[in-house]
Structures are given as structure tokens and as C-alpha cells.
Amino acid sequence: MSSHLVRARLLLSQRNPLEALKEIRLHLAEEPQDGIGHGLHAEALCILEEYEDALDAAEQALAYAPDSGFSHYVQSRALLGFDEKKATKAALAAIQEAIRLEPDEEHYHCQEAFIHEKNSNWQKMLEATQRALELNPEDDLATNLQAIALKRLRKGTAASGAIEAAMKRNPDDPVTHANQGWLLLEQKQHLKALEHFREALRLDPEMDWARLGIVEALKARNFIYRAMLSFFFWMANFSPRTRWFIILGAWGGINLLSASEESLGKLSVVVTPLVMTYFGFVLMTWIAIPLFNFILRFDSYGRLALDRRQTRQANWLAITFAGALVYLVVFLMYRHLELTGDVLFESVMWSLALAIPVTTCFEVRKGRPRNGMALYSCGLALLIAYWTFLGGYQLPKDIDQLSQFEIDLRKQGIVIDARNVQNFQLRKSNGEQLPAADLEPLKEKVEQKIAGITSISQRFRRMGTMLQFGFLAACFAPSFLPRHRERNEIDVHIE
Asked: pTM value?
């Protein structure tokens, strides 16, 4: 092994990938067909989260050293950096091949545990960490991964014991401090958690996991956010499929309750409060994080823990709420108008729900995914405004005009028997028939007014349906888009 490669390994162990890359490139200039060198090149790029280049380097490592477990290991790490389900599946296959070739390498089993964690397969994650610990009982990474798996399997006592053991072996390990912080945060001990997150960042100022922990611990000082955080932790214990069953089950139950409101008799008075509570809770599950990030911006320490992405997300949430406030003011001004007031109240609800796609924009990767979500959010905002215009202004205006026209006709002694464009009659109030010369122009005017009201009503209903499906799509869209990469968007560092 060349001196360049020895130095590169040392630099990687010190988490200095940029300097390690220089040494690796010098080595590859001398030995361009060295599989281990290409593998280390891929590993350094993975640490820098440059996964596409890392995958290219891993493929070169496989070309020159196909029987090396390390080549398959770095390929797995590179593939895991992609958010596609196929890439995760390929990453699992790659690490399993690495384990088959070199079953005594504990880090390979840890990599398999990482993949199972991403898939929320906590039992398999635990089994992978146990295999790693059988090979090296004092491996800190394996111990921390085991603690995470135990925590998600609701074995909190065992998880605490595992972390305490790791802390005793290596009290200066930042990962262990961060892991302890998250465990304490889940146990609602946010002040103690904050101490461990700060220590983790002191030991490793670049650790995003600890930075995120500080943000969550600071927000957990608010009892509302603590309740939401407990819900998030509870949901994290389930597989993705079970989470969707819970979400869709609750949604179906609320819809069933709303549909059967009239048949509930005296109990119907609780339906509206329950539906509103459900709506508020669902909205909070989506916006609680950016909402309390916005509040954290006014904290002298908390604002330093927010990265650029989180700050922008919080700002746009505030702008969305400002828009909802405009709708609320208009509603309060015109709530006495029957049709207009009802539509404006729903507009307030829709404008609040707009916070979901707006904040979701910042959960996906910069570039086309984020720009696409931003344009989609703008489209929904315009749709809300148009829907409000149709139902809150244009439709009531046309109905009022028809009513006024009917009043004017009554003053002339003429009565409209029906308001159906296909079947209505005009007659004199004394029962006499109108002359044909007078009947046809009046009938044409009435037909035009009723046809206009019918057209606007149909358009209003279509827009409402589009809003419902539009917001439903906005909830599901992020699942199919690549997630953001936080590391590239950090403005400040907490020492």
C-alpha cells in the first residue's frame, strides 16, 4: 500500500475527506487500476455527499476488484445516498454481497443496519447490529445503531443501557452523545437532551444530526410542540405501510362521521368540533416543524442552529399565514352574508392548508423538484383565489341580480313561476297571459341569468373538487421526489 493511501485512510478516519481526496488522487495517478484506491475515492465522496461521483468511483473499484467486499461496500454506501426505492434495494443487495465475500467485517453489517433503518425495518436492523457486535462487542457505531433499533422496537431500557455502555467506553464519541440526546428527547427530557447535542456539536461541529437535535430540543420547550414531537416519535415506531393505514383510517373515520351527521340526532353537535379538531391536528402535523422554527428565529441561540433551508421554510410559512390572515379579515367583514360568508370561511381553511405544499417545497431537493413544488403551490394559491371569487363574489352577485330582476318584474305585475332554465313560466300576477311580444324578450333575459348562475355554480364545484385533489396530491408528492440535502445549505456553525 502506497504512502498516499496510508495517509488517505488516516484522513478519512479523522473525517477530513477533502484532504483525503488529494492523497487518493495522487495514489491513483501512480496506480490507476487499483481497486482499493477507487474504493477509498468513493468513500470520501460519500462523506461529502457527492453520490453520483461516488457511484462512478465505486463502479471503477468493482471493475478492478470485483472480489473485494470493500468494493461492494462503497457501492452500497453510494447507492444509499439516492432517494429512489430501487437504489435502496440495490444498496441492500450490494452490502449483502460484501458480507458474503467478507463476513467478518463489522462495518459491513453496520451498513446493512443503516439500510434497514431507512426502510423502517427495525427488527432486521437489530439483527444486523447484533451480528456486528458479535464480531466486535466494543464497536461504537454498531452499539449506537443497536440502541436506535431497540428504541424503535419500544425497548427503551435496553436502548438506554446500550448507549450508556458506549458512553463509558468512549465518552468523546459525538455519535453517542447525539444518540443519547435523541433518546432523552423522546423521553421528554429536552433540557438534558440539549446538553448532549451541544457536546456532540462541540466534538464534531459538522454533525447535522446533532444540529437538528438542538433545534428540536429548543422547540420542545413549548408544550404544544412537545405534544406534536411525541406524536412524531410514536409514528416513527411503525412501518411506512402501518403509518398510512393509521392516516387513511383516521381520514375515513372523519369522513364517515361527517356523512352521518344528520342521523346522529343530538350527538350531531359534536361533529363539527371533532372535524375542526381533526383538521387542526392534521395541519399541525405538517407545519409544526417550520412553524416552531419560525418562533425559534427570535431565540438568540436557536436562530444559530437553523440552517438556510429551515430559515427560508419558516419565512414562507409566515407569508402563507399572512395570506390566510387577509382571507380571515375579509371573512369577518362579510360573514353576515349567507353564501359569501360560508365561502370565505372555507377560503380561510384552504389558505391555511396552503401551508402544507408551501413548506413541503423545502423538504425536497433544490433544483427541479423544489421549483416544481413551488410552482404547484402558486397554482393552488391562484386556484383558491379564483374559487373564492366565483363562490364569494360572482355567484352571489348573479343571484342578487336575478332576485332584483324578479322584484322589478313583480312591480310590473309579472311573476316567475320557477327558476329552472328548462322549465319556468312568466305570467301576470292576476293570472292573465302575457302578450307574446312582451313574453319572449323577458323569457330570454331570465334564461340568460339562470344559465349564467348555473354555469358559475358548475365551475365553482369543479374548482372545489380540483382543490381537494390538488391538496391531496401535494401531500403525497414529496414521497416521490428526492429529499433535500441539508449539509450544503448551512450558513452558521455552533461551536
From this structure: 0.72
